Automatic annotation (TrEMBL):
Zinc chaperone that directly transfers zinc cofactor to target proteins, thereby activating them. Zinc is transferred from the CXCC motif in the GTPase domain to the zinc binding site in target proteins in a process requiring GTP hydrolysis. Pfam families: cobW, CobW_C. It catalyses: GTP + H2O = GDP + phosphate + H(+). It comes from Pelagibacterium halotolerans (strain DSM 22347 / JCM 15775 / CGMCC 1.7692 / B2). This is CobW GTPase involved in cobalt insertion for B12 biosynthesis. Belongs to the SIMIBI class G3E GTPase family. ZNG1 subfamily. Residues 254-347 form the CobW C-terminal domain. GO terms for cellular component: cytoplasm. NCBIfam families: CobW. Keywords: Chaperone, Hydrolase, Nucleotide-binding.
Length: 350
């Protein structure tokens, strides 16, 4: 019998740095052939595009599979299992499989899927790695009032009194075999200590925390954890599993949409409009590519909460439509019409 293919599940909240970590991992694969499954929320494949743009020979197009259907945790049977079976049926099987979940995914249903007979015989979870955003955590963006939440929880473990954000964050933390505390470059040492102390309240005892900036984690530390996570599910239950004693969950708490606007405003004007939109509508994540008049290259835009980054990532290809396409994600309800109208107005006025 051939040995099982190890699989690393990379999870973590929207914008924590999962794709950045994967990019670093692929660039330092140390000779391993890695198949990558990317799951994105929203119908514009930004993550895959970011990875494909890395130009490294390890970022081979044929080794990247995109599951753009929202959330891997809800489409396990329809999307994930067939994708895994297709990878396993390849004549050139990978040495390792990496799955990047969407930032809104609960890892639990995905982990359990590794116990499906047709998968279990051939694949094992090497480890679940949860990427945490040190900057967002230090700004208190997941649980606004930790102390009140904790006090409540002590009173009744089962009461549904947390924010959707806080719950999702905790579900991702308890699922972890290793936590990568990323974006340490944005946080001073004292704040980082405080963040680690806070994190320890949410993770299973014994989970290792590795600090990182820009996803720079040694491949040998990341791959080869050998956890067989699918056989060790105790203590990893999601809030939903604990509360409803079963599978399934809903994503009604979050909303996402994509929008397309014609090339119009200049870089600074567009970024200012995006920053205003994020602040006015409490947008959690916004990403995509923009067409800036007179620019040969497209502008990659990455916003995580109030922090907006932008860089020209590659030249527009011949025949490619020069337009701005963005994915917007926030807590439900998201004012889609207003956001779309505001951004389009800026494009038209330009
Ligand atoms: N300063 C800083 N920025 C980072 C770091 N890691 C990632 N980023 C930036 O954070 C933004 C989001 O990073 P991604 O890697 O796309 O995050 P993600 O978790 O894959 O995002 P989703 O897939 O949308 O959930 C990008 O602008 C990254 O360049 C870091 O360690 N430090």
């Amino acid at each position: 019998m051939t040995s099982k293919i190890p699989t690393t599940v990379i999870t973590g909240f929207l914008g924590a740095g999962k794709t950045t970590l994967v990019r670093h991992l692929l660039a330092h694969a140390k000779g391993k052939r890695i198949a990558l499954i990317i799951n994105e929320f929203g119908d514009i494949g930004v993550d895959k595009d970011v990875l494909a743009g890395c130009g490294d020979e390890t970022c081979r197009e044929e080794d990247m599979i995109e599951l753009a259907n929202g959330c891997i945790c809800c489409t396990v049977a329809d999307d994930f299992i067939p994708t895994m079976k297709a990878i396993l049926a390849r004549p050139d099987r990978p040495d390792h499989i990496v799955i990047e979940t969407s930032g809104l995914a609960l890892p639990q249903p995905l982990i359990r899927a590794f116990n499906w007979p047709e998968i279990k015989a051939e694949v094992t979870i090497d480890g679940v790695v949860t990427v945490a955003d040190a900057a967002a955590l230090s700004e208190g963006r997941f649980a606004a009032n930790e102390e009140a939440v904790d006090a409540q929880r002590r009173l009744d473990e089962m009461l549904d009194h947390e924010t959707p954000l806080g719950e999702l964050f905790e579900d991702q933390m308890v699922a972890a075999d290793m936590i990568v505390l990323n974006k340490t470059d944005l946080v001073d040492p004292a704040a980082l200590e405080a963040v680690e102390t806070e994190l320890k309240k949410h993770m299973r005892p014994g989970t290792r925390i590795v600090r990182a900036a820009n996803g720079h984690v040694d491949t040998l530390a990341l791959l080869g954890l050998g956890m067989s996570t699918e056989d060790n599910l105790a203590g990893r239950e999601s809030h939903h599993e604990l509360e409803h004693d079963g599978e399934g969950h809903e994503h009604d708490d979050f909303d996402s949409f994509s929008l397309t606007i014609p090339s119009g405003p200049g870089r600074d004007q567009l970024l200012a409009a995006i920053a205003d939109t994020i602040a006015a509508h409490d947008v959690l994540r916004l990403k995509g590519f923009a067409a800036i008049p007179g620019a040969r290259a497209r502008l990659a835009i990455q916003a995580v909460g109030p922090r907006v980054n932008a860089y020209f990532d590659r030249d527009w290809a011949e025949g490619e439509t020069r337009e701005t396409r963005l994915v917007v994600i926030g807590e439900s309800p998201l004012a889609r019409e207003t956001i779309e109208a505001n951004l389009k107005k800026i494009a038209e006025a330009a």
